[in-house]
Design brief:
This protein is α+β, with helices and mostly antiparallel strands. It contains five helices and six strands. Helix 3 runs antiparallel to helix 4.
C-alpha cells in the first residue's frame, strides 16, 4: 500500500512540473518570450492596483467644558472612542453633575469611520502643538484628551484645538444637537 502512495506522489510531482508548459529541459517556451513590437502590452496599459491606506482608529477620551460660564450657560461633554471604534457620548449641564444626555456604543458608519481617522490625525497634530497652549485658565474653554500611544494634554486656546473640537462635533452629528436640546431642557 505504501508503494502505491509513493508512486502516486511521484506521478503528481512529475505532472505538476509539466503544468507550466515548459519543455523538460527548463528552457522558456515561445509564449514566455517578451514582446518585440512597439505596441503596448497589457501590463503597460493597466493601472497599478491602488494600495489601500492603513486603517488608523485611535482610542481615547476627549473632554470639553464651557470654562467659567455661569451655571445656566455652562455645559461639558465627554467622548470616549472605544477599541471597537464605537463612541460613548455624555453631556452634563453642571460641572461634574448628572448627565443630561448620554448615548453609549454609538456604531459608526463608513463615512464616520473616515471622520474618525481625520480626528485621530488631528489629535496627533494637537499633541505636537500642546506646548503652545497657554493653559492660563483665564475664563477659557479647555479641551482635554487622553489617547494611549498618542498622548494626553489640556489646551485652553481654541485656535490651537479648534480642529479637534470641530472634528469631534462633526463626528457626533445629530447626537450633539440632541444633547444640546436636552441640556437646554434641563
Amino acid at each position: 500500500m505504501r508503494k502505491i502512495f509513493v508512486t502516486f506522489g511521484i506521478f503528481l510531482l512529475a505532472l505538476s512540473g509539466c503544468a507550466d508548459g515548459r519543455p523538460d529541459d527548463g528552457e522558456p517556451s515561445a509564449t514566455d518570450q517578451p514582446a518585440t513590437s512597439d505596441e503596448p502590452t497589457v501590463s503597460d496599459t493597466q493601472e497599478p492596483a491602488p494600495v489601500p491606506n492603513p486603517v488608523f482608529h485611535c482610542t481615547g477620551t476627549i473632554e470639553w467644558n464651557a470654562g467659567s460660564l455661569p451655571p445656566e450657560h455652562y455645559y461639558e461633554w465627554t467622548v470616549v472612542i472605544t477599541e471597537a471604534s464605537t463612541l460613548d457620548f455624555t453631556m452634563r449641564a453642571l460641572q461634574g453633575g448628572d448627565a443630561v444626555y448620554e448615548e453609549l456604543g454609538i456604531v459608526l458608519t463608513a463615512d464616520q469611520l473616515d471622520e474618525l481617522d481625520d480626528l485621530c490625525e488631528e489629535i496627533v497634530e494637537l499633541q505636537e502643538e500642546v506646548a503652545q497652549c497657554p493653559n492660563d485658565g483665564e475664563g477659557t474653554q479647555p479641551l482635554s484628551w487622553n489617547f494611549p500611544g498618542i498622548g494626553e494634554g489640556t489646551c485652553d486656546a481654541y485656535d490651537i484645538y479648534e480642529d479637534v473640537y470641530e472634528d469631534t462635533i462633526e463626528l457626533l452629528g445629530t447626537y450633539y444637537t440632541d444633547a444640546l436640546a436636552a441640556k437646554d431642557a434641563a
